[in-house]
Specification:
The chain contains 13 helices and 20 strands. It is of the alpha/beta class and about 475 residues long.
Length: about 475
């Protein structure tokens, strides 16, 4: 081997870089995902640091064999609803079809139903209709569609999703509207018969809207990375656990790009330790991802992430918007966590960059995180004693005065525990019989343990050869249950 290889996990708060040198040595580097005072992109900065290249200098692509990356750019944009403003063009009479969807009622007895926010900001009805057998019920009014596209473009929309009845099979009308959108100047055009060429309007439409909503943000990031890696093979992890060339990486396939890498890594690590069945708990700065592995990777074709339905092959991962950087709120009547996140810039208040209070800050003030044991990350030094005044730091005496409030905020992050339980229920597993493996992530030693205790999980499970290696040892058993004699 005469070239470098890089494997990168670009999260919402931290970016981790693992590299293999030409001599086979493994080296690592960790840095904030956003630090505009020092670098433009964390992944590229990590590559430069390991190669010994000066900041801002061109990266020598001839020294690199390949770069493989998992990113939560699309995941976090979806969770925080920070995607591209999208306009939906749909057959006349079906403007509310995606809102109504299948009329599922997963929480039948809730007195106050909160519908998820739709990803599209505007709906335009297209004068057209094709029957199920391909007969033209209503011809396409191309002139009106062109005027509507121009009006949407004038309103500031740059992303359009085109979903027409039976367009998966009879594509002529969708192709014509897409051509008009291209002439109008839309840089992102997602057409249902290309994105999800399958029957059923709702599933096809939801997937097309997700693609239009996320692809522009993802495309900008991919182009930014690729522009500085000339001649380097660049791959991205997809939601299904496979790798895709950067030029073929789409928004609909990037929802679980980062979490998919987590379960793949957790499964390999567990296998090396002798475990065949695990629950993966991957808590990052913005989201928490829970997965299940029992010898094979479990995948789904139709799934829901952050209240958004989509139809694309992906790992079976339960994601909630509750991470270490999730912002703490008090609305006058109850404590709430997230879904917004402090991210890497400015980050939690304890990073001393003027950030908001987050789950991490609550753990610091409760003494569950000891800053002295954490390294300094770039310009964030949270090891220094906190000031007693304001100015972006945490009050030194706040832990004693408001410990109950901090504990309440941690309790408000119950979706993590619920996600873990939901994954167990979906797999029909008894909680006490499935060992838990932490993938990685923010507060990795705190919240998996708390969630596991709430669900009566143990850390370890007995290997087939009888060697109990995990902390706690022995078979997985309910907390408090006596050990069998003779062990």
């Amino acid at each position: 081997m005469s070239h470098w290889q890089f494997w990168i996990d670009r999260g919402g708060t931290f970016t981790d870089v693992v590299a293999r040198k030409p001599d086979g040595t493994i080296v690592t580097h960790k840095l904030l995902s956003e630090n505009p005072e020092r670098y433009r992109d964390a992944a590229l900065a990590g590559i430069r640091a390991l190669l010994g290249v000066a900041p801002g200098a061109p990266i020598p692509g001839e020294r690199i064999e390949a770069v493989k990356m998992g990113t939560t750019v699309a995941t976090n944009a979806l969770l925080e609803r920070k995607g591209e403003r999208t306009v939906l063009f749909i057959t006349r009479g079906f403007r509310d079809a995606l809102r109504i969807a299948y009329q599922n009622r997963p929480r039948l007895f809730d007195r106050h139903i909160v519908l998820p926010e739709m990803l599209y900001a505007k709906v335009v009805e297209v004068e057209e209709r094709v029957g199920a057998r391909g007969e033209v019920v209503l011809p396409l009014d191309a002139e009106r569609a062109k005027r509507d596209l121009q009006a949407a473009y004038a309103e500031g929309f740059r992303s359009v999703a085109i979903v027409l009845m039976h367009g998966y099979r009879y594509t002529e009308h969708e192709r014509r509207v897409a051509e008009l959108a291209e002439v109008t100047g839309f840089p992102q055009i997602s057409v249902s018969h290309r994105v999800s060429p399958l029957m059923k309007l709702v599933g096809r439409g939801d997937t097309t809207v997700v693609d239009a909503y996320l692809s522009p943000i993802l495309g900008r990031y991919v182009r930014q990375v690729a522009s500085e890696l000339e001649g380097v093979r660049l791959f991205f992890m997809q939601s299904n656990g496979g790798l895709a060339d950067a030029r073929r990486f789409q928004g609909k396939d990037a929802i679980l790009s980062g979490p998919a890498g987590g379960i793949v890594g957790a499964a390999r690590t567990a296998k090396a330790a002798g475990f065949a069945r695990i629950i993966g708990f991957d808590m990052g700065g913005t989201s928490t991802d829970v997965s299940h592995y029992a010898g094979t990777f479990e995948r789904e074709f139709e799934t829901k992430v952050a209240g958004v339905r989509m139809r694309a092959p992906m790992m079976s991962i339960h994601t909630v918007a509750a991470g270490g950087g999730s912002v703490l709120h008090y609305d006058g009547s109850r404590y709430r966590v997230g879904p917004d996140s402090a991210g890497a810039n400015p980050g939690p208040a304890c990073y001393r960059r003027g950030g908001p209070l987050t789950v991490t800050d609550a753990n610091v003030m409760l003494g569950k995180i000891q800053p002295a044991f954490f390294p300094r990350a770039d310009r964030c030094d949270w090891r220094r004693p906190q000031r007693r005044g304001g100015g972006g730091g945490l009050r030194a005496d706040r832990g004693r005065q408001h410990g109950e409030r901090d504990q309440a905020h941690l309790g408000a992050a119950r979706p993590r525990r619920d996600a873990l339980y939901a994954q167990l229920l979906r797999r029909r597993r008894r909680p006490a019989r499935v060992p838990r493996r932490r993938c990685a992530g923010h507060d990795a030693c705190l919240h998996p343990s708390a969630c596991g205790r709430a669900l009566r999980l143990r850390h370890g499970a007995r290997r087939p050869d009888g060697d109990a290696r995990a902390r706690g040892g022995g078979e997985a058993r309910p907390v408090g249950a006596p050990r069998a004699r003779g062990r």
